Amino acid sequence: MMIQAEEFVEAARNIGFEWYAGVPCSFLTPFINYVINDEKLTYISSANEGDALATAAGAAIAGKPAVVMMQNSGLGNAINPLTSLAYIFRIPLLLICTLRGDRLLHDEPQHELMGQITDKLLETISVPWEFFPTAAAEIEFVLQRATTYMQQQRRPYALIMRKGTVAPHALTRSSILHRGDSDRIIKSFFADNQQRVSRYQALTRIVELTEEKNTVVIATTGFTGRELFANSDRENHLYMVGSMGCASSLGLGLSLARPDLKVVVIDGDGAALMRMGNFATIGAYGNSNLIHILLDNEAHDSTGAQATVSANVSFAKIAEACGYGIAFAGDDMKLLDALFAADSNTRPKFAHLKIRSGTLKDLPRPNLSPEAVLQRFISHINSK
Length: 384
Hints:
- The chain has helices at 5-14, 29-37, 49-61, 75-89, 112-124, 136-153, 199-209, 223-231, 247-257, 269-274, 277-285, 315-322, 334-341, 370-382, and strands at residues 19-22, 42-45, 66-70, 94-98, 129-131, 157-161, 185-189, 215-219, 237-239, 262-268, 290-296, 299-300, 306-307, 326-330, 349-354.
- The chain is α/β, with parallel strands linked by helices.
- Helix 1 (5-14) packs parallel to helix 6, helix 3 packs parallel to helix 4 (75-89) and helix 11 crosses helix 12.
- The longest helix is centred in the middle third of the chain and has 18 residues, at 136-153.
């Protein structure tokens, strides 16, 4: 038995699901094609499944019920944000995960093990699941069970999709905007013989440049979030205490779902390197209300200052090549003032600021739980 893509997507739309992010699987093709074809639905094609989940989480935080689609072979890429973002912050997401390596199929060898453990893996990480509906009459009841759980527990719920569940549906529209290369700016702000600023100094200036009323600030995990909390604990701050590398994808989802907000993401070199594919996703989809700042001390500072490879990486050139409208690089804090003052037309803005390693003595941790921080954050943006 199989259903038409329209039957599920329209039933989901009737209860608020208009936002999708994912990585394709052949089992999902008709489903994804239907979503892309509809201009009133949003589909973000992410570089990997973890980025897709974090981007959908950003939309969910903004009040947009979101669906994450992926192949089970890519589920591993999403385990970290499922456990250290969606779980601890309590972010409800509808997960549609295909079942490659199904025991009922003769599939490719690389899917064999994941086919055997997909259900057990979801259960292990406390994500309840059921099979994706194969008959139109089942759809409403499946969605009702999923949304009831998500509303009550504020955590993800998964549907496992078998091969042939959804009938073919042709793709008639491209979901990717080709922006061209003519309006990008890259600029250097390096000062001669100047000691690099500290992370705390950079964060102090970012706080000064961000109005609490219409700007939100998302800080990556580790010392960055903790120092931002120590500097100024404001309702428009979100301290990511896990899901390393996902701050920029979360910020992308939030910025797209809430174009009225200025979304500032404070990243680190280790985190950016971990999920560099999201630079391309931001360049393709991001708008001018997204500001991505990378504080680079060339080290994994919070785990003992082990060196990263960032000394050999020009993140600004990467951002420019990926489609950001503005990409600044330097070790002078004037870079931050120039970044916030610059007009990037319709594209996101990026700054790569070199800083020195080290942190504050007796650095505190946020005195609110991740869930409390997020609920305060959501209340703040909904009051605007």
